[in-house]
Amino acid sequence: MTAKKIVSQILLVLVAAGIGGAGAWYWLAKGAGHVHPAAEKGGTAEAKKQQYTCAMHPFVVSDKPGSCPICGMTLVPIRSDSAASTGSAGEKKDRKILFYRNPMNPGVTSPVPAKDNMGMDYVPVYEDEGSDGGTIRVDPNTVQSIGVRTTLVTTGEL
Domain span at residue 79? Predict the structure, then answer.
């Protein structure tokens, strides 16, 4: 064999190893092989039972407290109010629709269902959505644990 062939074969092996390594890294980073208990059990029957998750890896869900198998952090309980907010999706049928809004340009509205020029359906806006569109809800326990203090506003010197 000539030196040129040997070098080209070594380069070919290195490129193949690099592609294989990148593929393995991508497959592992996606979470392949991880068990997702909430997805397997349907989630609805398990909503009443306390579950725990990793703050850095939310796809890691456990029925008992412990540590994350990926990073070793302590698993935190999943709050029940998040389950209640996902359960409200079924109530959309009972709510009254105020109007329909263009998904790409919220300033464009319609009193009836419509499609925009790209063929996208207008999104319904419900009565109870209009007033608190930008509201963020924080659990009172979280507010207490981070030390938020409130006081009345008064005029005074800084």
Answer: 34-92
